[in-house]
Design a protein that fits this description.
The chain is 35% helix and 20% strand. The chain has 285 residues and is α/β, with parallel strands linked by helices. The strands form 2 sheets. The chain has a 6-stranded parallel sheet with strand order 1-4-3-2-5-6, sandwiched between helices. Helix 8 packs antiparallel against helix 9. It starts with a strand and ends with a strand. Bound molecules: adenosine monophosphate.
Length: 285
């Protein structure tokens, strides 16, 4: 188990970059869990990878006022240990001033229409913040490939759109959502949940499973089945509070019509107490 090279500045990275060969980047906000581990393992296993780089950066630009930027878990030492265990070569862990020397950039990436639906509707400016930092990380690290999780399906679709629209020379690879044995999608935010809140949170993955089980019967049946399960969550103690449940086209994130056939994503976002959770499942209709 060799320790990764931990770099915190753009200059350090620029000095090392010529020696790194073909770089596969796994961008994260840290507090690494089994979901991140699967991305790192996939990065390692891609043919032709010389260097696996993991970025750990809690991006202030993607948090709205009143969101959890301040209390987001920051566990760099144990993240570096996880990276060492998985054979990561480089950890890039800049502070906010390194990425945003002027606090807020004047020029940012605009996510366009897909950035204002679902996650974007409930978190205004979120995708502009995500795409701006992803662009900056791509510029600083200059990866050949970047790996993203399907757990954040709309983010994945937005990043693919970013790469196409801005002709970024990076290949995007995605990995399926990793779940705990009880079905809850692993997330750095799960540490916020009490045992009772976690029980309530299980209604998300159950709703998606209920929707998936109804997928042969079409969009309306899928949404009805998922909604019925979420309704149980609304009545739970503590209760679930749902931001959205939607069946969407995986590329545009527009809701699909009732007669739709083809690939779709059933996506949900909900609150348990002060914790906002998202989950989704890919479906073939
Ligand atoms: P985050 O640190 O939450 O910003 O996530 C960093 C990357 O890990 C993103 O590409 C996420 O989609 C991915 N990710 C987070 N949770 C999971 C999970 N449970 N399964 C697969 N990928 C995940």
């Amino acid at each position: 188990m060799s320790k990764p090279l931990v770099l915190t500045t753009r200059d350090e990275l620029a000095r090392e970059r010529p020696e790194l060969g073909r770089v596969v980047l796994v961008p994260t906000m840290g507090a690494l869990h089994v979901g991140h581990r699967s991305l790192i393992t996939a990065a390692r296993d891609l043919p032709g990878t010389d260097t696996v780089a993991v970025s750990v950066f809690v991006n202030p630009l993607q948090f709205g006022p009143g969101e959890d930027y301040g209390r987001y878990p920051r566990t760099l030492d144990s993240d570096v240990e996880v990276c060492a265990e998985l054979g990561v070569d480089v950890v890039f862990a800049p502070n906010a001033a390194e990425i945003y020397p002027e606090e807020r950039p004047v020029v940012t990436v605009s996510a366009g229409p897909m950035g204002s639906v679902l996650e974007g509707e409930f978190r205004p400016g979120f995708f502009d913040g995500v795409l701006t930092v992803v662009t900056k990380l791509f510029n600083v690290v200059a990866p050949d490939v970047a790996v993203f999780g399907e757990k954040d399906a709309q983010q994945l679709a937005m990043v693919r759109q970013l790469v196409r629209d801005l002709s970024l020379p990076v290949r995007i690879v995605s990995c399926p959502t990793v779940r705990d044995p009880d079905g809850l999608a692993t997330s750095s935010r799960n540490v916020y949940l009490s045992a009772a809140q976690r029980r309530t949170a299980l209604h998300l993955s159950r709703a998606l499973r209920a929707g998936a089980d109804a997928s042969a019967a079409g969009p309306r049946a899928i949404l009805d089945a998922a909604r019925a399960e979420l309704d149980t969550g609304l009545a739970a103690d503590p209760p679930l509070s749902v931001d959205y449940l939607a069946l969407v086209d995986p590329e545009t994130f527009r809701e699909v019509p009732p007669d739709f056939t083809g690939a779709a994503v059933l996506a949900v976002a909900a609150w348990v107490g002060e914790t906002r959770l998202i989950d989704n499942v890919p479906l073939d209709l």
